[in-house]
């Protein structure tokens, strides 16, 4: 990419964001929309700073919920995929169920979980794990199942055992798919966290969004939404960074 | 090597009977094992009821009123997805025309993808009241970003050699789009739509949680209150069925459209 | 009479699918002596790739036996490691692992076979030097040329000191000049190390230049159609290609292959 293209790549979105926020403010003024329905971005940013001390405990709890759940879901998903794809019969048998696990919003289990285990942060972390491990499982399994045959033949010609074949060839060549799964896992973890925080308890940004909306504190509600966005984009960026470092060989 | 090379697996993926026999056998095994486990281990039926009890109680509830909620979610999810797919692809098609716009818009869309759109659910109630059809809107905003993102990636990630080929044949911009760019993007587009399916079910159920009054998510909350565990599991299975059907329909369409994919 | 290094005894490989039964190779029998350089040549689908994969235990025969140094390859179990270590397999497509450097790729068989120690490690450097790639030891496969990639493929198959080299159209994807150069390099390696080599190619010229004996294989079903002794003097050089004897061999082989093609059309 030329220097000019890189510059455009950075400036264009910045301009876009500024334009969108400006438009937002303008639309509010022109249509005289009451601030309690839709506050402007400036008011929201102000609230994010001014009320930060109030927000912080919830921000922190949501961060912990998301990141811990994510950190546990990723290895579980990858390991399960590694196990399943190694045994053809198991692979065939479990394939539709993985799809089931992926498309079923496991957040449906949340009311039941909370009934038995309460509203604590551990329950929320569990909910995040069960909602997000399936997608990293599915993507990893796709990668593991679709290794080029010549690579597998190479391992056969060296009489490699399962572990050797997996660690030297199957896993490395699946890294792109695995990372896609990890990125999606991050997104689902964030979503699950908010969903869970909606259902029970007074902790975490999700609960605050509901609270502030109920009390017409729309600026604060939006501030919470923006904080969730920041968490989401941070997680995504971290994963992308790790991906770039690890997959240096596949451009 | 040429087409006469004998690959190890010549059978067309998916037509192998083991692909539906194995899961079926597993299902039967699981149901039987669960039934036995619950009966013999004396586990509290509130935590885990027997599969037969789940089936019986859920069927009874289904005939009673659960069918209504089932159809409601079905409608919300399907219509929401339909709109999301159309909108997402349209927006992607428009933005992909100009490289500058693509560069500007992509980070915005990524932001919309990583920020759960369910964060807007409470506010939407504030703005739009409690019309049950609002949930279609929820599903829509949950799915459109990811579909748009994947479609956009599909439209913009095309090998220059393919474009050169089209141009060398004197194709117009419209023709290039229709005959080269669009088909080339299809695999990526379908991946986006499948992901959209997942977001759609999450969005619908979360909306049920927050708004209440109807929907399988709402029923689950109700059943939890009255400790009717069998119906809870049953409802979850019903939602799973909706999601699974949706996914399979998309996969079937994909097979017809993306014929060159193995 | 000395035991042949490699012996195929009425080997047949049949694939069954939902739709059809395919006989990849039928009743293939041949003996290869130690130190021989033998080529398999034939039109696509004649089963030449199947033959060396059967030998390297990548696939199992449906009928028949395969012997290495007089010992049979087990019909059901995996080949014992002593047997497989005697062989090195060189693939048609560049089959280097892109996330490993050249050096790591060459050392891969040592890691998988569990061969540790100074003696084995020194092989890596020695082989890299032999093909002139010492400077590129830390490069990645995407950073080197096609000819270099194939050289790495060849020495990788040699690092564990196998007695037998199995080569599946290793130079097929290269341009003519690079291929000829690699052919000569291969002959040098063979002369020095005296390994037994089975070489698959669809290029008649290459087969004649390299081998002492050429097996012509046919399709439908895959089988050996004829055996041609190439009694050209050694060491072989590129300028032999224009000699009359060479051209006669070319004609003979081309005719044999042509007959197979015709019989296919019938």
Q: How would you write the strand order of the largest sheet of chain C?
A: 6-7-8-3-9-10
Q: What is the radius of gyration of chain C computed over CA atoms, rounded to a whole number of angstroms?
A: 19 Å
CATH topology of one domain in chain C: Rossmann fold
Order of helices and strands of chain C, N to C? EEEHEEHEHHHEHEHEEH
Tell me the β content of chain A: under 5%
**CATH level-1 class of the largest domain in chain A:** Mainly Alpha
Low-pLDDT regions of chain C: none
Distance between the termini of chain A: 13 Å
Number of strands of chain C: 10
Please summarize the sheet with the most strands of chain A: none
The structural class of chain A is: mainly alpha
Please tell me what the overall shape of chain A is. Answer: globular
> What's the helical proportion of residues of chain A?
over 70%
Please name the CATH architecture of the largest domain in chain A.
Orthogonal Bundle
Largest sheet of chain C: 6 strands, mixed
Amino- and carboxy-terminal Cα gap of chain C: 42 Å
- Our count of helices of chain C gives 8
CATH topology of the largest domain in chain A: MetI-like fold
Give the SSE map.
The complex is a heterotrimer of chains A (251), B (262) and C (266).
Chain A: H1 3-31, H2 41-50, H3 52-85, H4 88-103, H5 110-117, H6 121-145, H7 149-157, H8 162-199, H9 205-214, H10 218-246
Helix pairs in contact in A: 2-10, 3-6, 3-8, 3-10, 4-6, 6-8, 7-8, 8-9, 8-10, 9-10
Chain B: H1 18-41, H2 51-95, H3 99-114, H4 121-128, H5 134-156, H6 160-168, H7 173-211, H8 216-225, H9 229-257
Helix pairs in contact in B: 2-5, 2-7, 2-9, 3-5, 5-7, 7-8, 7-9, 8-9
Chain C: E1 6-16, E2 21-32, E3 37-41, H1 48-55, E4 63-68, E5 71-72, H2 81-84, E6 87-90, H3 102-113, H4 118-130, H5 146-156, E7 164-168, H6 176-193, E8 196-201, H7 204-210, E9 213-218, E10 223-229, H8 244-265
Parallel strand pairs in C: 3-8, 3-9, 6-7, 7-8
Antiparallel strand pairs in C: 1-2, 1-4, 4-5, 9-10
Helix pairs in contact in C: 3-4, 3-5, 7-8
């Amino acid at each position: 990419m030329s220097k000019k293209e890189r510059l455009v790549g950075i400036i264009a979105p910045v301009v876009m964001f500024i334009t969108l926020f400006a438009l937002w403010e303008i639309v509010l003024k022109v249509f005289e929309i009451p601030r309690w329905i839709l506050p402007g971005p400036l008011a929201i940013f102000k609230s994010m700073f001014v009320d930060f001390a109030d927000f912080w405990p919830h921000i922190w709890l949501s961060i912990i919920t998301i990141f811990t759940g994510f950190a546990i879901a990723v290895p579980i998903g990858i390991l399960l995929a590694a196990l399943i794809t190694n045994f053809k019969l198991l692979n065939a048998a479990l394939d539709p169920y993985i799809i089931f696990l992926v498309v079923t919003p496991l957040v449906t289990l949340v009311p039941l979980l909370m009934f038995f285990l309460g509203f604590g942060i551990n329950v929320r972390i569990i909910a995040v794990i069960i909602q997000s491990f399936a997608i990293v499982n599915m993507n990893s399994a796709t990668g593991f199942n679709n290794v080029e045959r010549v690579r597998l033949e190479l391992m056969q010609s060296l009489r490699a055992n399962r572990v050797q074949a997996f660690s030297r060839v199957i896993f490395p060549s699946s890294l792109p798919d695995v990372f896609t799964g990890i990125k999606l896992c991050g997104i689902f973890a964030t979503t699950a966290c908010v969903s869970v925080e909606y259902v029970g308890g007074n902790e975490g940004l999700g609960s605050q969004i509901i609270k502030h909306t109920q009390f017409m504190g729309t600026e604060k509600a939006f501030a919470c939404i923006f904080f969730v966005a920041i968490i989401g984009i941070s997680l995504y960026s971290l994963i992308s960074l790790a991906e770039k470092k690890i997959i240096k060989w596949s451009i | 090597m040429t087409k006469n090379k004998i690959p190890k697996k010549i059978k067309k993926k998916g037509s192998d009977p083991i692909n539906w026999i194995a899961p079926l056998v597993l299902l039967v095994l699981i149901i039987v094992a669960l039934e036995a486990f619950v009966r013999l281990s004396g586990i509290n039926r509130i935590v885990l009821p027997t599969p037969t009890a789940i089936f019986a109680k859920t069927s009874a509830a289904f005939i009673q009123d659960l069918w209504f909620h089932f159809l409601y979610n079905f409608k919300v999810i399907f219509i929401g997805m339909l709109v999301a797919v159309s909108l997402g692809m349209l927006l992607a098609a428009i933005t992909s025309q100009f490289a500058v716009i693509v560069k500007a818009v992509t980070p915005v869309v990524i932001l919309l993808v990583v920020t759960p759109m369910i964060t807007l659910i409470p506010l939407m109630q504030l703005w739009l009241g409690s019309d049950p059809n609002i949930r279609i809107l929820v599903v829509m905003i949950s799915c459109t970003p990811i579909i748009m993102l994947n479609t956009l990636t599909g439209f913009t990630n095309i090998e220059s050699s393919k474009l050169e080929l089209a141009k060398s044949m004197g194709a117009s911009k419209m023709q290039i789009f229709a005959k080269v760019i669009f088909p080339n993007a299809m695999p990526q587009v379908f991946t986006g739509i499948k992901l959209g399916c997942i977001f759609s079910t999450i969005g619908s159920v979360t909306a049920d949680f927050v708004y209440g009054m109807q929907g399988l998510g709402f029923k689950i909350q109700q059943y939890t209150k009255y400790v009717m565990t069998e119906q809870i599991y049953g409802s979850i299975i019903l939602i799973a069925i909706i999601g699974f059907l949706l996914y399979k329909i998309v996969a079937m369409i994909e097979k017809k459209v993306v014929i060159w994919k193995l | 009479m000395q035991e042949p290094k490699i012996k195929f005894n009425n080997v047949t490989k049949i694939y069954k699918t939902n739709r059809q039964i395919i006989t990849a190779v039928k009743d293939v029998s041949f003996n290869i002596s130690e130190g021989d350089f033998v080529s398999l040549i034939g039109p696509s689908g004649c089963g030449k790739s199947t033959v060396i994969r059967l030998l390297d235990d990548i696939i199992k025969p449906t009928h028949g036996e395969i012997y290495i140094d007089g010992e049979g390859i087990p019909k059901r179990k995996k080949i014992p490691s002593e047997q497989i270590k005697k062989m090195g397999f060189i693939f048609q497509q560049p089959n280097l692992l892109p996330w490993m450097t050249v050096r790591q790729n060459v050392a891969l068989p040592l890691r998988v076979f569990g061969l540790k120690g100074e003696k084995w490690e020194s092989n890596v450097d020695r082989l890299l030097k032999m093909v002139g790639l010492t400077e590129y030891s830390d490069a990645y496969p995407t950073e080197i040329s096609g000819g270099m990639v194939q050289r790495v493929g060849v020495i990788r198959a040699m690092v564990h000191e196998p007695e037998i080299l199995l080569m599946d159209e290793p130079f097929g994807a290269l341009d003519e000049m690079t291929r000829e150069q690699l052919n000569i390099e291969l002959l040098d390696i063979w002369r020095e190390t005296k390994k037994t080599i089975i070489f698959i190619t669809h290029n008649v010229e290459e087969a004649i230049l390299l081998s002492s004996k050429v097996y012509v294989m046919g399709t439908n079903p895959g089988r050996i159609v004829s055996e041609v002794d190439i009694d050209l003097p050694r060491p072989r050089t590129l300028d032999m290609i224009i000699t009359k004897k060479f051209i006669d061999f070319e004609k003979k082989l081309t005719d044999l292959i042509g007959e197979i093609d015709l019989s296919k059309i019938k």
